[in-house]
Structure formats: C-alpha cells, structure tokens
Amino acid sequence: MKSAEQNTWKKISQTALTVLLATTAIGSEAASVTISITGSITPTTCTVSTSTISFALGAVSVAKFSGIGTGSDWVNRDLTLNCPSITGLNMDLTFTGNSTAGSLRQYFALPSNQGSGLTVASGVAVELSTTNASNGRITATTTLSWRPTSSNSSNNYSYPLYARYVQTGAAVGAGSANASYTMNITYK
C-alpha cells in the first residue's frame, strides 16, 4: 500500500510541477505596458461683446477742476461677457498703461502723442474705477478678481467700469486728452 501511496504522491507532485512550470512559462512571456495619459482641464471661457470699450468724456472746461484730485463727471461703460456657463468661472482683470509720476501713480497718464498738431492737455490724467467714486480705483498695477455669482437666461454678465479726467497738477492746461489702455482677462 505504501508503494501505491507513493505513486499517487509522485503523480500529484509531477502534475503540480508541470502546472508550476507551465504557469512560469506563461508568466515569463508576458510584457508590461505603460499607460500614459495626456491632456488638461481648461477653465470656462467667455466671449467679450466688444474688443473696445469707449468712454466719451466730452469737452470738459478747465473750470471744472479746482485742485489736485478733483475731476470731471464719471462716465460708465460695462465690460460685457457672454459665458456659456459660470460654473467654475473665475477670472482676473489686469490693466496696463502708463501711470502718472510721483505720488499720483494711481492715475493713468495721457500719452504725449495726441496726433499731428494737437497739444496735450496738462495737469490732468485719467482715473478708472469700478464704481463712480475713487474708492474703486483701478491703477496700472491693479488685478481685479471677478467671479459672476448668479446665472441668467441670456448668459451675459457685466462688470462696471467708470472713467473721468482728474487733476494731477497745480493747474490744468487745455488740450487734447485722448488715451487708450489695455485690460487683459485671464481665466483661471
């Protein structure tokens, strides 16, 4: 009986060894594959309704200015964006332009080139704001973060902007007072 038992164990051992070798042989023929994923998740973007926001400040009398910091009437224009969705919409608005010199750097300077034969107004600059007051002042180094908070059916969202002339010198001199500045919108 011992011999039959040994034969059974011998057959089981040989079968196990054959299975082990077959498994090892199959496993050694396998190759590893690297799965590589590329892409990005992009922020929601909007369409700007116009590439130029024009402020017609009009012909302002030098008599309107009575000292440094006084200014003309505020004129409002809105930055209007059409956004398909405001979910996750965050943006920064940054402004570039030349600042006035010295302690009045919070204002945008008038460019010296106003066109052929035109004299530049003196003692004034442009003040930009998010309100019709200086407490919302925008400077050449301002970054405004904006996130529309409520949806509307038209998908149009407005950000208020105001502009005016402001006295920056001891006296205001008459002349042309045209200017342009850049606002960049960065989605994040």
Features:
188 residues; alpha+beta; 5-stranded antiparallel beta sheet; 3-stranded antiparallel beta sheet; 8 strands; elongated; Adhesion_dom_fimbrial; Fimbrial protein; Bact_Fimbrial_Adh_Pro
What coarse outline follows from CA principal-axis ratios?
elongated
Strand order of the largest sheet: 1-2-7-4-5
Assembly state: single chain
What is the C-alpha radius of gyration, as a whole number of Å? 36 Å
What is the straight-line distance between the termini? 82 Å
Helix amount: 10-25%
| Low-confidence runs | 19-23
Q: Quick check: average pLDDT?
A: 83
- What is the makeup of the main sheet? 5 strands, antiparallel
Query: Based on DSSP secondary structure assignment, what is the total number of beta strands?
Result: 8
Output the helix-strand order: HEEEEEEEE
Measured by DSSP, the beta-strand proportion falls in 15-25%
The number of helical elements comes to: 1
Q: What structural class is derived from the secondary structure elements?
A: alpha+beta
Strand-helix topology:
Blueprint: H1 2-28, E1 47-48, E2 75-82, E3 91-96, E4 124-129, E5 137-138, E6 143-146, E7 156-167, E8 182-187
Antiparallel strand pairs: 1-2, 2-7, 3-6, 3-8, 4-5, 4-7
Description of the structure:
The protein is α+β, with helices and mostly antiparallel strands. Helices cover 14% and strands 24% of the residues. It is built from one helix and eight strands; from the N terminus they run αββββββββ. It has one helix at 2-28; strands spanning 47-48, 75-82, 91-96, 124-129, 137-138, 143-146, 156-167, 182-187. The strands form two sheets. Strands 1-2-7-4-5 form a five-stranded antiparallel β-sheet, with no helix packed on it. A three-stranded antiparallel β-sheet has the order 6-3-8, with no helix packed on it. The model is unreliable at 19-23 (pLDDT under 50).
